Sequence to fold (662 residues):
Amino acid sequence: MVKVTLKNLTKRYGKIIAVDGLSLEISDRSLTVLLGPTGAGKTTTLKCISGVLAPDEGEILFDDEPVTAIPPWERNVAQFFQTYALYPHLSVYDNIAYPLRERGLSKSEVDRRVKEIAEKLRISYLLDRKDPSTLSGGEMQRVALARTLVREPKVFLLDEPISNLDAKLREEMIYEFKRLCRELQQTVIYATPDYLEALAVGEKIAIIKDGKLIQYGTPQEIYYHPANKFVATFVGSPPINLIEGDLKIEKEGIIFQEGGVTIDLSDIAGDWINRLTGNKAILAIRPEDIHISREKRADSLMAKALVAEPLGHETIVTCKLGENEIRVLVKGFFNVKYGEEVWLKLNKQRIHIIDPKTEEVIL
Amino acid sequence: MATTSRIVRRRSPVKRALLYLVVVIVCLIFVFPIFWMVTTAFKTRAQAFSWPPLFVWEPTLRNFIDIFIKRQTEIEAITGWELELATGAEIFFYNSIIVTFGSIALALIIGTLAAYSFSRYRPTGTDTLMFFILSTRMLPAIVVAIPIYFFYKALGLYSTHIGLILLYTMFNLPFAVWMMKSFFDEIPKDIEQAAMVDGTTPIKIFYKIALPQVLVGLAATVGFLIINVWNEFLFALLLTERSVRTVPVAIASTRGEVGINWGLIAALETLYVLPAIILIFLLQKYLLRGMTFGTVRGV
Fold:
């Protein structure tokens, strides 16, 4: 239960920079997600925090006390490894009991806590198993999670703890996990490459790419106010629509033009226009912020429907708007014929403008 | 195994029979000297020399008794040659066992620790050092025989158990280090890192986490080292006098003035080979793993 501060954390493997000047403040008892694609430096960051890797530069502080010089066996953190890292020569029970025994807890206390966590993670039936390598992937993952959560450390570090479960179990685990974390009232740092998991689990999300912090905020901030093109496209499914075109500022207002499509942006004019480095702009809009209908309405754009993918509670409709393929999310079912004429109305308050040169989101 | 049997099953009966015939012939070629050795051990001197060779005879335990029991006068009266074995061969077996187990214990302790350090901590120049360790095995043993002889004489190690143990430890260390390093290299780093985070200090990680995972490798290494030492002849001959002499040297010394008592030699050899055969039988699956461990992965 500490506040974790990373100051300019840098870790290199030879010429490769895994973590590049990462600074982050993770508040006490918060559930923070490190989100980023594979190879972004999430695992390295976690390993630096637990101490199994020594950073090349920068500092790690627990409650403003530097811990960089404290070896991992004295740092009192619990870490879940992406590879599970179960002790192959120990039984499931002994694996979970291991960190407690290493800390010299009494036999009865160890037994009580192992059984309690096994119950919570629904692996009690596995405790007698001798050889952990005979477990299924999902079982191994839960045993490893139990070994991590059985302790009461200063901070929990979880590296993709539920990535290898099947979809149904995973959904259950997200809920179970979040509940467990709130029950434990601990500082948790959680790494995942899956944005859905990040949004569902995290109270705060730190987006990391190429070892650098791109954006740090609540799930809502990340989703509605992405910092740049990478965040905008990385978070959200179906992905955000991007249309690159010319921006013209005329007397009548601001006009966005691309492939014969003209969008009037006068309503959302603001000082972002001054931040644009050229006269090109990328218009970004999420699929759920476009309204689709078969009748022409005011301020809507004509498009050709291509395919519809019904998902039950919603349908993804792909349309051709000018030269661009646009995805639209519709509630319920919406069947289209190939090439059918549809009308799209953009929710202008939800439009983002990205500068194509800097890739920054300026609106 | 499964693949092999599937292939065999698909073959025609004729081909299969031929295949087995080849296997049997090859086995006979390899087994025949051992067979001859064992049978000779149960023959009298006259029977051992008889031509055509005897395949049916009344086996005698005389040779085995003669190895251990002093009957100098009797044997000398019969054969007329002076027998090195006369005081009983148990001393040679004792020497072989002491030297083998002493040197293997040492080589394993030092080798395993060194291998673990090389594998996990990779000190500066690890690759060079590993090559350097191996390079001591590239020299033919005979090249260093004379220097070591004088060296041992000067240091008072000549004809001592500890002298032979140290020498064999040195010979076996490269083997132990290289083999054990490969096995340690196979342990995922995450497992040891998990143990660190769980509160285990590095020394404890070595024996509580790393060592239990390389027990198979350790067994394979032990097998190889025992074979190396158990059969060593050159230095045992050069550096020992009677009191420290090992069995291979003793066998070679069993020469008389009028000829060689093959029955005695065969009995001695049979007894000496027996523990090695039992050991290899027990360790065979580990030995196979030890022999193939590097071939897939490179170094």
Remarks:
- Chain A has a mean pLDDT of 91.
- Residues 241-354 of chain A form a domain with the OB fold (Dihydrolipoamide Acetyltransferase, E2P) fold (CATH 2.40.50.140).
- The first strand of chain A starts at residue 4 and ends at 13.
- Chain A has two domains: 4-234, 241-354.
